[in-house]
Inverse folding.
């Protein structure tokens, strides 16, 4: 089930698959350097880093099925200490993610950190196209459960998800973050249209096929998603070998924020002179990108003044 190209690519990639000839399709994601770079830039407390890593995996697996040149934005917002969690996937595999924190108990994990709130999924197909946005209340104790509930409520798509984020130690080196995930869905008639609210699992056979695949996904252990010695192909084989599994060409991902001095200057140009004056510190306006933590410096008039 592997080919030469896919064997060379074990990390920082999304691996599409289909279970046998069934309507069960999905993605595995494996992130090492890409997620380490994102999480090291933020230096969040570990439980928050875990959430950001999970959100990045989710956005990637959801975004990987986009058939156009757009962007998928996964957000969770609530009344807990993590007021906002955002991860973006842009077609071509560019990832970025961040979180906003407010005072609160950071010793919690999972969706308890976000509190009562909503999952917001946005698909942005570019300037001339309408944005699609789905919003559902946060349910469950983990981000994976919340995403499964999102798909059930917003799109009525049967979904199973497992996510894992962890630090890996190598003697003599700093710990590095890794993240991984698997998401399977029952999506009959690829590209076909369906009436809203129409039952997807139409027959006893459909229900059996889905129940079996979902149960396998849910048995996936954290180390199977994180251990660099267990490839995506090995994981898929372990889970679905009895039914047969087809692994398609992996899609590489990379960290890319897309921020620039010009874009920030364009935002600053919308502020009044008074507002700009309030932002000046030590004779300059300093802006830190909330996604990649890159620092930009502007003149008191909001003009780019080169690297700080
Ligand atoms: Zn940035």
């Amino acid at each position: 089930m592997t080919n030469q190209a896919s064997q060379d690519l074990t990390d920082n990639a999304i691996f599409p698959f289909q279970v046998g000839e069934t309507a069960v399709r999905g993605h595995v994601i494996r992130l090492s350097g890409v997620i380490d770079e994102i999480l090291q830039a933020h230096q969040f407390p570990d439980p928050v880093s875990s959430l950001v890593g999970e959100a990045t995996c989710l956005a990637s697996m959801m975004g990987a099925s986009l058939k156009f040149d757009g962007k998928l934005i996964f957000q969770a917002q609530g009344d807990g200490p993590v007021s906002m969690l955002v991860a973006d996937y842009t077609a071509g595999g560019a990832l970025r993610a961040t979180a906003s924190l407010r005072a609160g108990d950071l010793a919690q994990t999972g969706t308890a950190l976000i509190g009562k709130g909503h999952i917001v999924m946005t698909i942005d197909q570019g300037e001339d196209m309408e944005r699609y946005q789905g919003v559902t209340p946060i349910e469950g104790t983990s981000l994976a459960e919340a995403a499964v509930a999102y798909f059930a409520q917003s799109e009525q798509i049967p979904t199973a998800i497992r996510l894992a984020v962890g630090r890996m130690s190598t003697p003599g080196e700093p710990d590095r973050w890794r993240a991984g995930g698997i998401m399977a869905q029952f999506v009959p008639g690829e590209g076909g249209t369906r009436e809203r609210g129409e039952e997807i699992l139409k027959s006893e056979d459909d229900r059996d096929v889905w129940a079996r695949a979902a149960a396998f996904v849910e048995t996936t252990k954290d180390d199977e998603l994180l251990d660099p010695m267990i490839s995506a192909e090995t994981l898929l084989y372990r889970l679905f070998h009895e039914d047969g599994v087809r692994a398609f060409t992996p899609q590489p991902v990379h960290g890319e924020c897309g921020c620039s001095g010009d874009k920030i200057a364009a935002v600053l140009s919308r502020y009044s002179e008074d507002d700009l004056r309030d932002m000046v510190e030590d004779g300059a306006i300093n802006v830190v990108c909330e996604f990649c933590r890159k620092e930009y410096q502007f003149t008191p008039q909001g003009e780019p003044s080169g690297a700080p």
Observations:
- The longest helix spans residues 46-63.
- The pocket of zinc ion is lined by residues 257, 259, 289, 291-292, 294 (CB under 6 Å).
